Amino acid sequence: MEERAEPGRVLVVEDDPTVAEVVAGYLGRAGYTVDRADTGPEALERVAAQWPDLVVLDLMLPGMDGLEVCRRMRDRGPVPVIMLTARGDEDDRVLGLEVGADDYVTKPFSPRELVLRVESVLRRSRPRPGAAPAGPLRAGRIAVDPRARSATKDGADLSLTVREFDLLTFLLRHPGRAFGREELMRDVWGWEFGDLSTVTVHVRRLRGKIEDDPARPELIQTVWGVGYRLDRPDGAPQGAAGPAGRTED
């Protein structure tokens, strides 16, 4: 019988005590060890004292907002982040994704949905027990080792978020094939529905890390009217891409 991995340690950063208590309660009942912080500086102190497996981070914190907290955590090392926001404006959600959040949930939200999102992000950040070993993947100067969850460009480590790594790995496993954003959301994020701008932002961030010139990508191409496709530099691209040098958004 396969041994199940421990659910993990989650840091909840939320200044509303009622919301923090509800979120911590649901995560605790799901088996997670939960730490709490109600300010940005306190969150950074807790991260420094004990590195969490995932952070649930409120965007609107007093003093130091969630965007700055996320940036500073990313400077210390990779950690999955799910951002909470009470704002309905798409620009705020995009900002959270741009600074490295792996997912976001808009208030008011279902605590059960949040727990499912936490499970989804953590599941994809860890090797699956009993899964068949996946060999290294390569496209030009980019190399990915799915077993070690490591990615390099010209031998130098790439600092990728959980979702960026998953997206790159998925595209590397299907070179030359165009995927719509709905397909990527389902196959990479594991969601049947959601905000498609999430995919767009992650593609843009990934291009910024793996392409020499993100404005004129050589690997991840935009397929107009469809979505995105990864072209291997050593192989003939398949399908029809849009005008050279143009990318969506």
TrEMBL record:
Specify the domain of life of the species encoding this protein: Bacteria
> Which CDD domains would you find in this protein's record?
REC_OmpR, trans_reg_C
Q: Which UniProt keywords apply?
A: DNA-binding, Phosphoprotein, Transcription, Transcription regulation, Two-component regulatory system
Which residues are in the Response regulatory domain? 9-122
The ranges the UniProt entry gives for DNA binding are 134-232
> An example of a Gene Ontology BP annotation on this entry?
regulation of DNA-templated transcription
Question: Which residue intervals define the domain OmpR/PhoB-type in the entry?
Answer: 134-232
GO molecular function ontology, one term from the record? transcription cis-regulatory region binding
Q: Does the keyword Transcription regulation apply?
A: yes
Q: Which GO terms describe its cellular component?
A: cytosol; protein-DNA complex
- 4-aspartylphosphate is found on D58
The answer to keyword Transcription applying to this record is yes
Q: What is this protein called?
A: Response regulator transcription factor
At the highest ranks, the source species' classification is:
Bacteria, Bacillati, Actinomycetota, Actinomycetes, Kitasatosporales
